[in-house]
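User: For my dataset I need records formatted as: sequence, then structure tokens, nothing else. Please produce one.
Assistant:
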Amino acid sequence: MKQLETCPPVQAAEYVPVAGDFAQLEQADIATDTNYASQGYWKGVATHFVRNKRAIIGLILVLLMIFLAFVAPLFSGYAYDEIVTALNAKGRKKAAVGISPRVPAIHEMVTGEPYDDIYADKTFLFGTDAGVVHAIRGINLDLQKGETVAIVGESGSGKSVTMKAAVGLLDSNATINSGEILYTYDDGHGQDKTVDLLKLSKKQLRTEYNGQRLAMVFQDPMTSLDPTMTIGKQIMEGMLLHKHMPKDEARTKALQLLELVGITDAEKRFRNYPHQLSGGMRQRVVIAIALSAEPDILICDEPTTALDVTIQSKILDLIKQIQQKMHLSVIYITHDLGVVAKVADYVNVMYAGKIVEVGNVEEIFYEPCHPYTWGLLSAMPDLETADDRLYSIPGSPPNLLHEPVGDAFAARNRFAMVIDKKAEPPLFKVSETHYAATWLLHPDAPAFEMPKELKERLERAKKEAAKYL
């Protein structure tokens, strides 16, 4: 047989690691650990970190993000000039002057064209990728102590952003070219002090005015409450920050506030988290937080939108009771005219960034003059209406990327005239407290009447209301 040939033994070559090889990396790690041990752990980490370029770049990016998120806003302040001067209803102006000492008040104004008592100014803009949005094109809001003022209108009309300007919650792309938000209050020494909220730094506004003088109740309590903090801690936070209360005293007052807003078993709820409460209870907690630092003005941004009808009524009654007990001034932002009828003293109807009608609640509900207000009132359900279809205002609000020419409501207004498409109407005086921006009130305008169906509905509502007086 043929013998198998044997191969000479192969000598194992000495392994030499190449750059990037796992073995080399492992040896480097061992050397690094040895180095850490000899230098001290943190000194070794720092040495290794400095030699790693990618880690350095990552650290720089993280520090830059922290600076932009937390530090830069403290120095930005408000780069706004002034929000405006405009209409003051003469009757209310004289009444306010007659109060001594002058009561806390907030005046927020953004302009229209000059006419009688209106003084012109400029605009309130938002820069977007699509262009500049003319969000606020002409408003005036006047609030006196103890009053309840409502701002009503469709979504996107500028209601919420108007009041966010007062508490410094505008987005970074907002610009107010000119105007002012004047807030007058007693400085604690019997003297009136007036400040322009737009000229305060963001830090000053948040530490001296937000919470303890101006407070806001937001639309959705679930998103405005911190899910990681107990209810009690969130109520105490404002008292600890603004009032510098001892913790025990703040805890006692937080429990009292929970009872004030109608939450039973306050001790138990104090330790609950937001997700453990119902929608109505969460809204009551948000109201308690807003009241914790004893503000002069309470701004309610759609406070009942996320609630069912029965809970809505209880929340509105609660706010009214607290207002009377604490002598608050209240601003309601809403699209629900039923809410307005229940709580408001004065109503501002807003459309496409402008106040189109203003008056007391009786004037707006029983003697409306603007076609847009007619549309809003006609869209309210009525059990005695003969029509089997619910009325809706035709069309959609204008795109404010392109500022409307003439009356912004003209395209949706069946009473529109030729002038409505060419010139913006000023606020025409109807009474000492009632103004409306419609060319139908011009002395040369043709005679007109509100729709017959609406007129009959308002007459029924007036008779129904008289039963409760």
